[in-house]
Structures are given as structure tokens and as C-alpha cells.
Amino acid sequence: MSLVKRCRPHRSPGLPVLVVGALALAAGLAGGPASAASQDTLHDLASAQGKYFGSATDNPELPDAAYAAKLGSEFGQITPGNSMKWDTTEPTRGRFDFAKGDVITDFAQEHGQTVRGHTLVWHSQLPGWVGALPSTEVETAMTDHITAEATHYRGEVAAWDVVNEPFNEDGTFRTSPFYNAMGKDYIAKALRAAHAADPDAKLYINDYNVEGKGAKSDAMYNLVSDLLDEGVPLDGVGMQAHLAIQYGFPYQMQANMQRFADLGLDVAVTELDVRMQLPADAAKLATQSSYYAQVVDACLAVERCVGITVWDYTDKYSWVPSTFPGEGAANLYDDGLAPKPAYAAVRTALGDDGDDDGGDDGGDGGTPGTLKALYRANDTAAGDNQIKPGLQLVNTGTAPVSLPAVTVRYWFSGDNGATTYGSWCDWSPIGCSTITHRVVAASSPKSGADHYLEVGFTGGTLAPGAATGEMQLRLSKTDWSNFNESDDYSHGTGASYADASKVTVYVGGALVWGIEP
Ligand code: G3I
């Protein structure tokens, strides 16, 4: 099946259509944004790996020029967040309105993007008249709806979420007007109707909480296995991937994707975002970054994973805060459209090497991954003449990190007495001989942070997922006068190693972890 865009003859956009068509062909799988960006876009990087990278969007967002510019340049695929849903496209039986959806397909054509159609049959955002139908009429209403919409967008929608969210969390079928009228057969009937209307579109069943192995993804697996056995036209499974750092990363996501791929199906990550409890801080954003990177890693590792769509790219237009009060910050860019740490993590996971050639050519030795610092207090005496931080670094990224490029700062105040210091490394599994340390006077001294212990490395590489192990460090003033550590910025009292956002980490001089005082 071709994913190359075709255009409806009744709305001829003229010359740009030909240009877009050529770009789409050249970019292969997923088209390519017509962009003059100076660095590879997320979609460029994904395309180099045979995948697309897309974003959801919604009509009210498009007049935001800065938003639309990035949507059109960074992403190779878009999904309408609302405008192809049943309540918008057929609010009254038999009266179709595709105006809002057409705005989305027009935008995509102007920017050389493919479109995932979302969604034909769903229990939500369903106009009241569907639920009020006698059960004997539901099948006809459903197939009429699918036929009209999939026919209208034939050639413009590369893939359809034909059926959305058919399961409850325990893997039983969700009740809906469709299930109530037809039982689970509504799914096969919907897929057949969509295939008849647009034989070239890729047809998906899409759901959330099916990213990892569990009861719900087992149910999806059993359903799609049965459908394939019955010869029902089905091309893929959509994993929405609305993740939350407080609930952990999906269990065995890559293996779960692979088992669907092994059935001969495509897999798509269709609605990725990673929310957290607000306020966001450096530690939460680092965890979020690692979740995004792990999703990219899983998709890259599974050949039949065709691409990733984020459920809008900016916190400015996220669905999360209104649905989960107190949660948010779920997207790759912040409210001001500035990229967040997760954006860099996704780039790195996609193989960015800083060149503008669509990926890592090994030419510069790779890019830094994402590091985090862990800390524990190695002494309980906060008023004596020594400070004893225990530190560890963990590579939470997907690229190896060259340790000589890394420095770590433990911030403290010298209090009264001498302003010169000595420092020591007492023990580390990587060997104290590879660890450098010195005390530096802060250029902008703050209360509790007029100095920092700067830790560096003479050699070594930290592989993705690897940790340095603990570094037992110690410092004192040359006159051995006492400190008052209790108000020191980086000081804590925890006896176990824990993520430490007040210990800052730099790669090549750029802050990659923590918050400076
Ligand atoms: O259009 C009305 C507007 O007229 C009214 O003034 C306003 C007042 O609240 O509501 C507007 O409708 C909102 C609609 O989005 C369009 O913005 C609805 O209230 C709001 O509930 C709806 O939320 C959408 C949600 O689906 C509904 O379930 C989100 O934007 C959309 O991002 C979200 O997307 C879903 C996927 O389709 C399926 N997977 C989960 C995902 C997140 O919930």
C-alpha cells in the first residue's frame, strides 16, 4: 500500500501539490516537511531510520503562527486531535461536514506531511443521535459513516484509526452503541467498510494502556490474531502511549510491540505524551526525557514500528491539564514553544549527531546522552570541619557519554574562616585516580552557595544505562574551621543515594542536569 499522498481533484492547490508529491516520494515512507531548517528535524532523523515523526494538532491552534511554523517544519506527519471525529463530521445523521478535517489535510499537503485519520468508530465524541438509535439501525449508521468519511479522505489519509479504544482496562470489550448492537463483530465490520471505501489506507485499531504487556494488550493481541485469521483487512495496531512518570514506564514495551509485529502487523505510537504532577522540576523532566527516549528506542528496535506521533508537541496545547487537574508539562516543547530536555533526548535517541544529514554518521564520536546525579550525605555531622558528599552519575540517555567532557558541581557555603580549601576522593569503584576535584569560588555567590566542589574525570566512557558507582568525596578549609552545612544548597540528609536536582551536571560546559542556585 502506498503512503504517497494523492490530492482530491475538487480542491486543486495548484503547483505546490506537484512539489509536495515529489518531496513525499523522495522522503519515502512518510513524506517530508518542506523545510529549510539548519539542523535535522525530528522527522529528518526518524526518516533516516525508516520511520516518521509526527504530531497531533487541532484547528484552533493553527492561527498561532509560531506554532504552525514549527508544526509544519519539524514533523512529517500530523493527526487531527478532534476534527475528524464523529461529532464533528456527522453531527446530524446523514449530514456530513468535513470542513475542519479538510483544513488539516490542506495543511499537511502544503507541508509535505502525511495524515493519520482519527477516528472513525469510537464511543466518545459521538453525537447523541447515534446512542439514541434502535440497535437494529446502528450497523447501517456505522457503515454509512465510515463509507462517507473514508471516501471523502481517500488518497489524503494514509492511515486510519478505524476503531478507537475498544477495550476496558481488564481486557473485556468496552460497551458502546456499536458493541451493544453487534457485539465484538462491529470491529470486523468497521474494518471491512473502511477497506471498501479506501483500499489504500492502512487500517488500525488504536488504544491506550496497550504499550506494555498486560491484560489489555493481551486482549488486543487475541483480537487482532483472530481478525487476521478471519481475513479481516487490518494493517496495524496503534499504541496511544499517554504515559505518566508517576505510574512507571510500560512493562516490556519493545517485546510487546514485537509480538504484534510478528503477526505481520505494523505498529505505530499514535498519541505519545508523558505527563507529571506539577510543578515540573529538573528531576521530573529528566525522568520524562528518559521515557520519551525509551519509546523511541523501542520503536527503532522493532522494524514494523512505522513511526511516532506526539499528542501535540507543546505544553501550550496539551489535553492533559484539563483532564488531569494538577498534572501537565507532558510535551516536548514548553508553553513558550521552547524545546524541553525531552526534545534533546528524543533527538539523541533518534541518532542525532549534530550534522544536518539525518542521523549519526559516527563522524563526531556521538552526542552526549542524558545524565543524572545521585547524592547522599556521607556524614551526619553538619557542623564539623569536613563536608563529605557521596555522588554518582547515571547515563539515562541512549548514547555513550565521554566522561572527560563531564563536570559536576556540589554547591556549599564556606561560612567563616579560611577561604582556601583542600579536597579528596576517598573511594570510588571507577578509581579515584580517574576523578578530579577542586573547590571553586562561585562567580555569582548566593546564600548557601558561594563555592562549589567541582568533580571531573580524566578518562572513561559511561555507556547508556551505566552508572559511575559512588564517588566518596571530601573537602575542608585549609584552617580546618567548622562549616554550617545545614543551609548549603546541595546538602541533604538522606543516607541512601537519591536523584539530586541541586547537584548540577554539565557536558561540554552545558547544564544537562539539576538546577543551579
Ligand atoms: O469544541 C468545544 C467548544 O465549542 C467548547 O467551547 C469547549 C468548552 O469545553 O469544548 C470544546 O470541545 C472540546 C474538544 O476537545 C475540542 O477542543 C471538549 O470539551 C474536549 O473534551 C475535547 O477534548 C479532546 C478529547 O480527546 C476528548 O475525549 C481533546 O482535545 C483531544 O486531544 C482528546 O484526544 C484523545 C484521543 O482522541 C483518543 N485518545 C485519548 C486522547 C486524549 O484524551
TrEMBL record:
Keywords: Carbohydrate metabolism, Glycosidase, Hydrolase, Polysaccharide degradation, Signal, Xylan degradation. This is Beta-xylanase. The active site is at E271 (nucleophile). It is an enzyme of class 3 (hydrolase). PROSITE patterns: CBM3, GH10_1, GH10_2. Pfam families: CBM_3, Glyco_hydro_10. InterPro entries: CBM2/CBM3_carb-bd_dom_sf, CBM3, CBM3_sf, GH, GH10, GH10_AS, GH10_dom. Residues 349-371 are annotated as: Disordered. The keyword Hydrolase applies. Residues 367-517 form the CBM3 domain. It catalyses: Endohydrolysis of (1->4)-beta-D-xylosidic linkages in xylans. Its EC number is 3.2.1.8.
